[in-house]
Design a protein that fits this description.
With about 475 residues, this protein is of the alpha/beta class. The chain contains 19 helices and 16 strands. Among the domains are: about 50 residues, no CATH class; about 130 residues, Rossmann fold (3-Layer(aba) Sandwich); about 100 residues, Phosphofructokinase domain (Rossmann fold, 3-Layer(aba) Sandwich), CATH 3.40.50.460. About 40% of the residues lie in helices and about 15% in strands. The longest helix is centred in the middle third of the chain and has 22 residues.
C-alpha cells in the first residue's frame, strides 16, 4: 500500500465487495449449469442471421458445489471501453483474483486506451501491486478507456493476431451497449473461423438502462445516483437557505429516466419530470409547463418562492421515433423535399438514408431496422445525420460528438464546417463541454460567466485562457 495515500483512501481500500452466494466459498467450488437456449426479445430472424454461430447459446448459471474448474494457467486480456463508470476497477480486480486463485501462474493483461489497445497490441501485465492500488477506486484510469469501435473484419483480424501473440484464452470487454454489441460481433467472427478464444462482455452504464431479465443492473448506476443525489441535496440546502430561487437541474439519462427517478426518491425535490410518464400520458409541452407553473404558484401562495425541479435528458424521446425504422427516422423531417404532390418518393428517401448511414458508419443490418434496437451511440449518429440533412439556416449543436468514435467525430466536425462555409452560409452555434472541440471549430468563442457574455480574444484562445474566463478570472471581471 502506498504510504502517501490519504486516510480516506486507506479506509476505502479495506472494503471487501459483497460476493454472490456461488462465489463465497472460492472460485474452486463453483459448478456450471447450462439451461435453455437464449432467445431474442424481438426481430429474431434478423438477429439470428447476424449471429448464426452465437444465437441460441444456452443460459449459463453458476452455483456453489463440488466443481472441478480448469486449473491450467490462463492468459486473459481485459479492455475498458466507453465512458468511465464506478466499479470498473473492481471488475478487473475480481477477474485477477479469480484467475490467481485457480492458478498462480495465470496472467491478466490490460490493453491500454480501450479497444484500440487490442488492435495495436498495447498492453501491460496487471500484477497484484498494480491491481491493489486501484481496488475500490472510481474511474477507468488503471488502463484507460477509448471509444474505438470493433466493427470491421480487418479490426477483428488484428485483434485475433494480438490474442494469439499473447496466447489469450479469453478477451473481456467492459463497456456499454455499443461495446457489448462490438463484443458480440467479435465473438461471432471468432466462432465462424473456429477460433476457441472466448469473448466476454461485461455490461457497464451509469444510465441504468442496460438491463433485462438476466441483468439485474449494470455496474456504475448506484454510485452515479448517489453522487448526483449529494449534489442535488447541496442545491436543496442552498434553496432552503436563500428562499428565493427555483433550481431546474438537468440529469443525464440516455433512453430512460432511471437516474432522475432514483435521485428524486433520495432527495425529494418539488418537481421531477419522468419521461416515461410524459410519454404514456401523451403530455404536450404546454401541459408540462402548466403542471410546473401550478406547483410554483401553489408554493408561492404558501410563502415559499423557491424549489427544486429535476428534468431528465432523453435523447431518444427528444430526437427519435423508436418504433419506426432507420429510413423513416432520417427521412421524416425532410419530407417536404422528398415528396411530390404529397406522395413520398421512396427511392430518394432510401438514397438519403443510405447516404447518412454510410457516412456516419451507423451500424444497422439494413434501413428497415427499427431504431429502438440500435445501440445508444448509433442512435446519436442517426440524429446528427438527420439534422444535418435538413440543410438548415441555423444549427445549434450541443455536445454534438458525445459518445462518437474518432471517425464519426471527424465527420460531424467536417459537416458543421461545411455547412458554415457553404454558399447558404448556415450559422453554426456549438455548445460543448469539450474545450478542444470548441477551440478547433469556432471562428468566435464566447464564455458565459457571472451573468455576462464575454468574447474570447485571440490571446485567450487557449484551454487555460478560456478556463480562466469560465471561472470568473480577472479578465472576466474587467
Amino acid at each position: 500500500m502506498n504510504p502517501e495515500i490519504s486516510v480516506l483512501q486507506r479506509e476505502r481500500a479495506k472494503y471487501s465487495p459483497k460476493m454472490p452466494k456461488a462465489l463465497r466459498k472460492g472460485f474452486k467450488s463453483v459448478t456450471i449449469h447450462k439451461g435453455k437456449p437464449t432467445k431474442a426479445a424481438a426481430d429474431v430472424a434478423a438477429i439470428k442471421s447476424m449471429f448464426p454461430h452465437c444465437f441460441g447459446q444456452p443460459i449459463v448459471t453458476f452455483a456453489a458445489g463440488k466443481g472441478a474448474p480448469n486449473k491450467a494457467a490462463l492468459n486473459v486480456g481485459v479492455v475498458l471501453s466507453g465512458g468511465q463508470a464506478p466499479g470498473g476497477h473492481n471488475v478487473i480486480a475480481g477477474i485477477y483474483d479469480g484467475l490467481k486463485s485457480l492458478n498462480s501462474r495465470s496472467r491478466l493483461l490490460g490493453y491500454l486506451g480501450g479497444p484500440q489497445g487490442l488492435i495495436n497490441d498495447d498492453c501491460i501485465d496487471l500484477t497484484g501491486d498494480v491491481v491493489d492500488a486501484y481496488r475500490n477506486t472510481g474511474g477507468f484510469d488503471i488502463i484507460g478507456s477509448g471509444r474505438t469501435k470493433l466493427e470491421t473484419p480487418e479490426q477483428f483480424a488484428q485483434v485475433l493476431e494480438t490474442a494469439k501473440r499473447s496466447d489469450l484464452s479469453a478477451i473481456v470487454i467492459i463497456g456499454g451497449d455499443d461495446s457489448n454489441t462490438n463484443a458480440c460481433a467479435l465473438a461471432e467472427w471468432m466462432a465462424a473461423r473456429g477460433e476457441t478464444i472466448q469473448v466476454i462482455g461485461v455490461p457497464k452504464t451509469i444510465d441504468g438502462d442496460l438491463r433485462n431479465q438476466l441483468i439485474e443492473m449494470s455496474f456504475g448506476f448506484d454510485t452515479a445516483v448517489k453522487v448526483y443525489s449529494e449534489l442535488i441535496g447541496n442545491i436543496c440546502r442552498d434553496a432552503c437557505s436563500a428562499r428565493k430561487y427555483w433550481h431546474f437541474i438537468k440529469l443525464m439519462g440516455r433512453s430512460a429516466s432511471h437516474i432522475t427517478l432514483e435521485a428524486a426518491l433520495q432527495t425529494q425535490p418539488n418537481i421531477a419530470l419522468i419521461s416515461e410518464e410524459v410519454a404514456e400520458k401523451k403530455m404536450t409541452l404546454g401541459q408540462i409547463v402548466e403542471q410546473i407553473v401550478d406547483i410554483v404558484v401553489a408554493r408561492a401562495n404558501r410563502g415559499r418562492d423557491f424549489g427544486i425541479a429535476l428534468v431528465p435528458e432523453n435523447r431518444q424521446q427528444q430526437g427519435l421515433i423508436l418504433k419506426h425504422d432507420v429510413e423513416r427516422n432520417i427521412a421524416l423531417p425532410n419530407l417536404d423535399r422528398l415528396s411530390r404532390n404529397g406522395v413520398a418518393m421512396r427511392d430518394q428517401m432510401r438514397a438519403l438514408a443510405q447516404q447518412y448511414v454510410d457516412r456516419l458508419a451507423i451500424r444497422t443490418p439494413d434501413l428497415a431496422q427499427r431504431v429502438m434496437y440500435l445501440s445508444g451511440g448509433n442512435q446519436q449518429r442517426l440524429i446528427v445525420g438527420r439534422e444535418l440533412a435538413l440543410l438548415p439556416d441555423l444549427v445549434v449543436a450541443e455536445n454534438p460528438t458525445r459518445g462518437l468514435d474518432v471517425a464519426a467525430t471527424a465527420f460531424v466536425h467536417a459537416e458543421l464546417v461545411r455547412l458554415a462555409r457553404s454558399e447558404a452560409r448556415c450559422a453554426v452555434v456549438v455548445i460543448s463541454t469539450d474545450l478542444d472541440e470548441v477551440l478547433s471549430l469556432a471562428d468566435r468563442v464566447l464564455v458565459i460567466s457571472r451573468g455576462r457574455l464575454i468574447p474570447v480574444d485571440d490571446a485567450a484562445r487557449t484551454r487555460e485562457g478560456v478556463g480562466t474566463l469560465m471561472l470568473g478570472g480577472a479578465d472576466a471581471m474587467a
